[in-house]
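Class, look over these structure tokens:
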Amino acid sequence: MARSNRNGKRVKRPDFMALALKEAEAAASRGEVPVGAVIANGNIVVAKAGNRTRELADPTAHAEMLAIRDACRKLASERLTGHDLYVTLEPCAMCAGAISFARLRRLYFGAADEKGGAVVNGVRFFASPTCHHTPDIYPGLGESEAALILKEFFRERRNGGEW
């Protein structure tokens, strides 16, 4: 995606979902469920992460949670107002809660998660009247690429007997 800068020259905006997909692939190479996340402010990547639940023996070490923690630490703030989250898979209820509490401006996600998702599937966290903050939500960005990475990962695990 290109846009004009102050001088009228065309500059390329970073493809944040492509970066999230790379984080998902890196997670898969570590034996983690391939989910990647990037937090950006304007054209700047503030934080990025892939799942590390197995590596850290921590069920909360989802890509979104790790990216939110890293961004908040770097900014010395518990709020990420004005920041956008790009994630390869529809967030679960835990991650949706963290997104709400962090006050992220926008949520872009790739593949829908009919089983564990909580944005357009499942509990639909942001539609709850008790939700503190709802980001603008953009589903389906990079959906086919994200779904393919997940399908290949689980196919390999099922064939190898690991899952």
Remarks:
- Residues 143-160 form the longest helix (18 residues).
